């Protein structure tokens, strides 16, 4: 049955949203918005302070299946042309809003790409995961990986635990974290004792399936292709 205009769009983390298998949102830089994406404006209210952003509706829908559903159905958000994200971080959404128009990740203090840091990049990936924005996820992931290669360290147990709390099993971000740790160094029992059980299991699987020529190389192998840690619809690739 069709929802009435008083119905609210389901929570983005709900199975109602995630059961959709056919993504319309763009996931590659080769697909660019056109002039028709810059028509009607909608209002996005962010955080408990309800900081308002005026954003072109079709541009937002071009990047996000979640917002496409919210603003093109019979939900009240589509009727009112306004949607509230009370739990969203205002500083993070500033970067998201800029990304919609520039395809770059840039903070208010002018930090860009890998320089944004693992926490912000991980949060951007999580925002893209929550609101079904695959190109945002892929751009954040590329910057995340580049930063990891630049710093050459390992991720703390605290970082691993946080990302496992905030992501779904098998997600590209989880896979990269585990692969990075698996190829970087041996893990002490003390350190692994602070890992989530799911992460320990994933690490064991990664170590078991590792090719002999990849053992001890101290980096994630580069023979997996650019899209290995990306989010794409079936048949889509960079």
TrEMBL record:
InterPro entries: BTB/POZ_dom, SKP1/BTB/POZ_sf. Residues 22-31 have a biased composition (Polar residues). Residues 1-31 are annotated as: Disordered. Signal peptide: none annotated. It comes from the Eukaryota. Pfam families: BTB. Residues 40-109 form the BTB domain. This is BTB domain-containing protein.
């Amino acid at each position: 049955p069709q929802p009435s205009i008083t119905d609210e769009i389901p929570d983005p983390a709900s199975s109602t949203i995630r059961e959709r298998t056919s993504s319309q949102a763009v996931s590659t830089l080769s697909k660019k918005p056109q002039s028709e994406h810059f028509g009607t404006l909608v209002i996005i209210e962010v955080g408990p302070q309800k900081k308002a952003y005026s954003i072109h509706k079709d541009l937002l829908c071009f990047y996000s299946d979640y917002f496409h559903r919210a603003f093109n159905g019979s939900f009240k958000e589509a009727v009112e042309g306004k949607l509230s994200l009370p739990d969203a971080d205002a500083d993070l959404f500033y970067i998201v809003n800029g990304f919609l128009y520039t395809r770059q990740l840039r903070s208010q203090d002018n930090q860009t790409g890998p320089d944004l840091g693992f926490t912000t990049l991980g949060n951007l990936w999580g925002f893209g995961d929550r609101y079904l924005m695959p190109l945002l996820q892929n751009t954040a992931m590329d910057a995340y990986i580049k930063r990891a290669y630049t710093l050459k360290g390992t991720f703390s147990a605290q970082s691993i635990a946080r990302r496992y709390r905030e992501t779904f099993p098998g997600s590209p971000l989880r896979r990269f974290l585990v692969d990075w740790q698996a190829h970087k160094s041996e893990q002490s029992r003390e350190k692994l004792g602070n890992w989530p059980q799911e992460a320990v299991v994933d690490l064991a699987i990664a170590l078991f399936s590792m090719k002999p020529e990849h053992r001890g190389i101290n980096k994630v192998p580069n023979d997996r292709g650019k899209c290995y840690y990306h989010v794409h619809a079936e048949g889509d690739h960079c």
